[in-house]
Amino acid sequence: MEDYQKNIIAFQIGVEGLVQGVGFRPFVYRLARNHGLHGWVVNRTDGLTIKVEGPAASLPGFMEDLRNLAPVVSQVDEITIEQDEPEGLNGFFILASQDMTNETSEISPDIAVCPDCLEDIKNQPHRLGYPFVNCTNCGPRFTIVKDFPYDREKTTMAPFTMCDQCSEEYTDILNRRFHAQPVACSHCGPVYTLHSGSMTITSFAALLELTCSMVMQGKIIAVKATGGFHLMCDAMNDEAVSRLRKLKHRDGKPFAVMFRDLETIRLFARVSEPEALALSSWRRPIVVLNTIRPLATGVAPLLNTVGAFLPYMPFHHQLFEKLRLPALVLTSGNIAQEPIVIHNEEALGTLAEIADAVITYNRDIFNRTDDSVVRIINGKERILRRSRGYVPLPLKLDFLVEFWQPAPNCPIPFVLAKETALTSASTSAISKTMKPTCFMKRPLNGFSNFSGPNPAWLRPIFIPIIFQQSLPAGLGSRWFPYNTTMPILLPAWLKTI
Fold it and tell me: What are phi and psi for residue 331, nearest 5 degrees?
């Protein structure tokens, strides 16, 4: 051991930032093997920890690649390095995740389906036509997470037992699906179901055919997306769009429009290079563009802009492959001013009153998200609504924040607040945009959605008063006794974020 230690050095490396659910551990594994290093890597609730030992000449190259070649979706905020004692380790290993109790790392936002997975739908026998394909580079993340660290048993994929093929991919360190927590195939994963009146369809091929047929006929479809339900119709059909606007009680606010591809968007709107980059990014936000050709009259009344976005779920791509339409209205699945619906039972009740059919799937959404909205101003992306693809990534502040911790089960009315923040020291985790509770038809249900027990992975988060919102006299007093100026807080319950 003494001779070994003379020629070998060892370091323990801590990596903080977005490093869970983005393929960072297999990346570190391959990196260490390529540089001839031994050791281990482990996911912890406070980040990623790496132990490496090997020849001194190999360490600088490893550290450089760790910083410069990290997975595209990852975000490395800080790397700490401490010299350690060599242990004579042989090989490199990925250890089981560890819970460090009062520490938290960052959870990945949901990621648009990648090109490789879209190819797998056409080529892999156990995924032919399967609409829930994903890998370490794409798929649902935040919307299915229940707790830290990010492991399958702590997500809404826990009820789905992997088949032998998926299990083999999941445990193969060189496979693109190594430790991809939502990994699934047609043998073992979630499935879609279409409900229309007394009819129920579970065959995905038949479901897709009927959906296309109904949309072409001007029907409205409620379909479960990544973070909640959408209401969908033909964006070129004046009658369908007008009917949707009336049933949804949406007066003049524009509808978002999903186009089949970037080339099709260019037929209807001006698209600059920064706008094209935003549209095609893994976040897939809605991008506000200047129109050059009209869609249905009711899509964006009296506006010369359109909120355009591209397919981000396998289902969207499969739908456009069969549809002979350039674009679809895909608006939040809710009644005006209420939160987006995430539960199948609620959708089959509330949204069935609006839609001619409701498409559900049997994987739960734990954290609701809406589609994010951005606009490019002076060449820079400005976020108008921060949700899917952006939450729950925090914003780093250049100042410290004084904070306090409210009691568990602290009920907080949001009233006119639309975005709030969890803040800890110099980090601010901005919530998703939420609907104001003062306009809800069901105030008690809506109110209860914003309070609850602290999940374990929020233990170290403290909640400051972040701003004050002036209210018109009497507005909101039905749920909160103040009618002038009141503090707006975020509850210690990330399920509403």
Answer: -110, 160
CA angle at 41 for the pair 37 and 46, rounded to the nearest 5°: 145
Give the containing element (helix H, strand E) for 210.
helix 204-216
pTM: 0.79
Cross-strand pairs, 48 = 15, 43
pLDDT of the residue at 2: 52
Give me the numbers of helices (H) and strands (E) for the chain, helices first please: 12, 21
Lowest mean pLDDT among 57-66, 168-177, 320-329, 455-464: 455-464
Please tell me whether residues 52 and 151 are part of one structural domain.
no
Q: Are 241 and 257 in contact (CB under 8 A)?
A: no
CB 48 within 8 A of CB 125: no
Helix, strand, coil shares of the chain as percentages rounded to 5?
Answer: 25, 25, 50
Domain that holds residue 141: 107-190
Alpha-carbon span 382 to 364, nearest angstrom:
31
Q: What contacts 483, CB < 8 A, 6 or more positions away? A: 471, 472, 473, 474, 475, 476, 477
156 φ, ψ to 5°?
Answer: -75, 5
Give me the mean pLDDT over the 274-288 stretch. Answer: 97
Whether residue 184 is found in the same domain as residue 139:
yes
Segment 129-175, tens digit of pLDDT: 999 999 999 999 999 999 877 789 999 999 999 999 999 999 998 89
Alpha carbon distances (Å) from 335 to 338, 346, 351, 479: 6, 12, 8, 20
The CATH number covering residue 255 comes to 3.90.870.10
278 domain-assigned: yes
User: Distance between CA 361 and CA 224 in Å, rounded?
Assistant: 7
